[in-house]
Design a protein that fits this description.
Elements: H1 2-11, E1 19-22, H2 25-28, H3 33-40, E2 44-46, H4 54-60, E3 70-74, H5 77-80, H6 84-98, H7 116-124, H8 128-140, H9 164-173, H10 177-197, H11 234-248, E4 253-257, H12 263-269, H13 271-286, E5 292-294, H14 317-330
Helix pairs in contact: 3-14, 4-11
Length: 331
């Protein structure tokens, strides 16, 4: 739904801001337009989108506002390396861009190629039931996923839990389709309100009062693949360079920035090694581009408060306020 809402605004020319913020969900949850606008005396819109990759920004270049005086671009490990977030974009979110290719404007090869899945998807669009599902899910699907909880696809395959008995029990207590649609429409109405009130800012998966920041002692050490183990993704580097070159020629003040991850995640994923690797790549990306500048990663203690992170990766409203104030000073 977030993709649908923001792309619709961009395509209809509803985004009128002197400063445009681009990036993924870290960006969407990390930069408060109201705070930045007050500090810089420029209107700001946060165009951050979940799992955004350079392929997505390249495809969106046709309808993003082109007259911004400043563009702030977030590059992080999840959009530079071959990470699980890239896989989410490649397998799911790129369909949100593909849906706007009815007039052939978007170059679909930029959306990670014409895969067999995309060919099948285009073929199935001629099936009325599939087309109805495709047209409805941005409106009634949850803010961060499509119709994954509808009766025909809502089984949660937890190891050892999917037996005929547990499946029947689940269906017996699961909400019906009508109830689920109503719940999702209410949720998305709330999300539309939050995005509108804060110019595109949204704390990831938080639907209650966004200004309330709770201490999160449960943010413990993260187990799993360290960030430094993410392989290089040369296609991403090439596209980021192409995007930087276009930004350099736009006449705007172009800024590349990075947002901290939580201390709990940084501690177990060797984040300093990753960001040093990123700094070297970004320096090469903007080399020879006088109208593009990079801002260093903020000091870790800046967002070290107990209520500064909503989860392991995304800042809370309070953390975003602190970071945005610091970013405004760096601009």
């Amino acid at each position: 739904f977030v993709w649908h809402q923001k792309i619709q605004m961009a395509r209809t020319g509803s985004i009128d801001a002197s400063t445009l913020v681009l990036g993924d969900s870290q960006t969407m949850s990390g930069i408060l337009p109201g705070v930045l606008a007050a500090r810089t005396n420029q209107s700001v819109y946060n165009m951050g989108l979940p799992a955004m990759q350079p392929e997505g920004l390249e495809a969106m270049r046709f309808f993003l506002p082109g007259d911004s005086r400043r563009v702030i671009l977030n590059i992080d490990p999840f959009s530079l390396f071959e990470s699980p977030v890239y896989e989410v974009f490649a397998s799911y979110y790129k369909q949100e861009l593909a849906r706007y290719d009815q007039d052939g404007v978007i170059e679909r090869p930029r959306l990670v190629g014409r895969t067999a899945g995309l060919w099948l998807h285009q073929l199935l669009l001629h099936v009325p039931a599939y087309r109805l599902h495709y047209d409805l899910y941005p409106l009634i699907g949850p803010g961060e996923r499509a119709l994954s909880e509808f009766p025909f696809s809502r089984v949660r395959k937890e190891p050892g839990s999917l037996t005929p008995a547990t499946y029947e029990a689940y269906l017996a207590q699961a909400p019906g389709t009508g109830e689920l649609v109503d719940r999702r429409m209410q949720q998305n109405a709330r999300l539309r309100q939050l995005l509108s009130e804060r110019d595109g800012f949204w704390t990831w998966k938080k639907y209650d009062d966004p200004t309330v920041c709770e201490s999160r002692p449960e943010l413990q050490r993260l187990e799993g693949l360290p960030l430094y183990a993410y392989p290089d993704r040369p296609a991403a580097v090439r596209l980021w360079r192409k995007i930087q070159e276009r930004m350099n020629n736009s006449g705007a003040d172009n800024v590349v920035e990075k947002i901290n991850i939580s201390h709990a995640r940084a501690e177990t994923t060797h984040a300093p090694v990753v960001y040093a690797r990123m700094d070297a790549i970004i320096a090469d990306l903007i080399d020879g581009l006088p109208n593009v500048r990079a801002i260093p990663l903020p000091p870790e203690e800046l967002t070290g408060g107990a209520d500064h992170f909503h989860d392991l990766t995304h800042l809370s409203y309070c953390g975003a306020r602190v970071y945005t104030e610091w970013l405004a000073g760096e601009l």
